[in-house]
Amino acid sequence: MNLKNKTILITGGASGIGLEAAKQFLTLGNKVIITGRNLLKLEEAKKAYPELTIIQSDAANPQDAIALFQKVEYLGRIDILYNNVGVMSGPLNLGVASAKHFEAAENEININYLGVIQLNNLFIEMLNV
C-alpha cells in the first residue's frame, strides 16, 4: 500500500502510539489530522509538529463524531482512518461489583468499541471514493 501523499485521520493522536504514528506518517509526506478529547495535548502536539491539523473530539460522544466528520469533510477528504483511540480503566476486582466498575466498563465500551464503529460508519463512504 502506498503511504505517501495521503490524508490520514488519527483518533487519539495527541500522545502515545497515535502521536508516534502521526510523526511517522508526516515523515512520509502525508497530511495528518489528529483528534483527541484533551485540547491541551492536541495543542502541544501541534506546537511540536506544526504541519499537523488538530480537531478536538470525544470518540464516545456521537455528536462529536458527527461534528468531526463534518469538519473533515469541510477540509476535503481522508484516505485513511486510523482508529487509535482507546482507554483502559485498569484491573477490576471481579469479586466486588459496584457502580464504579459498571461506569468504567461502560466508558471503555463507548470509546473502544461503539466510538470506533460510529466513526467507521460515518467515514466509510469517504474512504470508498
Automatic annotation (TrEMBL):
Oxidoreductase is among the record's keywords: yes
Pfam families assigned to the protein according to its UniProt record, in alphabetical order: adh_short
Molecular function GO terms recorded: oxidoreductase activity
Taxonomy, superkingdom: Bacteria
InterPro entries in the record: NAD(P)-bd_dom_sf, SDR_fam
Keyword annotations from UniProtKB, A to Z: Oxidoreductase
Gene Ontology cellular-component terms listed: membrane
Annotated family: Belongs to the short-chain dehydrogenases/reductases (SDR) family.
Annotated protein name in UniProt: Short chain dehydrogenase
